[in-house]
Amino acid sequence: MKKYIYIFLFVLLLPVLSNAQYYTADFEGLDSNSLPAGWYKTLNPPVANPPYPYANWTIRDSGLCMPNISCSPIRHSRCYQGLKAVNVTWGTSIINDTLANDNCDAWLITKKFNNIPGDGYFTFYACGGSPSWCDSLQVWVSTTDSTIASFTNYLGTIIWPAGSVYGAFSMNFYDLSSFAGQNIRIAFRYVSSNSDGYVVMLDYFQMFGTVGINQIGTNVPSKFALQQNYPNPFNPTTKIKFDIAKSTQVKLEVFNNLGQLVQTLFNEYKPAGYYEADFTAKNIPSGIYYYRLTTDYFTDIKKMVVVK
Fold it and tell me: Exposed, middle or buried: residue 171 (CB in 10 Å: 0-12, 13-18, 19+)?
């Protein structure tokens, strides 16, 4: 019931929230040997030479046959919009050709999203199931690394019982506000066997929220600079302003008093301009911290204090 309330609120507020979208993976322009930058797929446990490698998460055009799925127009690959989607079939459970009764985990893992905003959430469209077989898709979050064992934050499971309409995509919504200020990856886990599972198709993944770095001026600064954060001391949010005099790779990081990396706020290529980043200390203790700006031409470090 809670999920449906979220979906209703999302649809109701869509005109207001549409400008808060900051990342989209629609799988267009990619082929069956590719995934979006930073994404990857794996099997658990890993399989060196699976007999049907394209049964695991694979980007396909609509209207194509899929591994271990009856090749007919009513069972072809589908997408929510555009031409392509990423899909996985029950063929991931076939580990050898003579005994097709193994269970198999197929994981699709996203790129890392830094400094999740306090109002962060993500949506995607998915479909699964068939007249005879059921399907399910689990959603997990990791706050550490990309190994399967690190995905310890369970967000939910989507279930398509036998008899579900093949190819009928629906929107799914997951709140990320509990991960505010953290760096995360999202994983989609498909579990199949010879007695369960058919195909799951996923499309149009989007991240929403007030992104923590904004360009605040259109003029070009005369020099690089890192400003003192304000307010300081702070609890739980502060702003960090910096000036970029020339287009460059920009990395903004926070370290604790021992020099250990606490969080990467930003690590992307940016044009010259004046910028402002938000840092939320919701999940770190009181103390002295340091933030470092690193570019191809300039590096600086300043101190800030968290008081709770």
Answer: middle
What the block records as the tokens of 24 is 């989209």
What does the DSSP assignment read for 81-135?
Answer: SSSEEEEEEGGGG--BTTB----EEEEEEPPPB-S--TT-EEEEEEEE--SS--E
In this structure, what DSSP letter does residue 227 have? P
Whether the CB-CB separation of 112 and 142 falls below 8 Å is answered with: no
For 251, how many CA atoms within 13 A lie in the half-sphere containing its CB?
A: 13
Question: pLDDT, tens digit, for every residue of 5-55?
Answer: 444 444 444 433 333 567 899 999 999 999 999 999 999 888 888 888 999
Expressed in percent and rounded to 5, the helix, strand and coil fractions of the chain are 10, 45, 45
The pair of structure tokens assigned to 29 is: 């322009």
Q: CA angle 190-192-197, nearest 5°?
A: 100
Domains of the chain: 2-208 (2.60.120.200), 213-306 (2.60.40.1930)
| pLDDT surpasses 90 at 125 | yes
Please tell me the distance from the alpha carbon of residue 100 to that of residue 161, in angstroms, as a whole number.
22
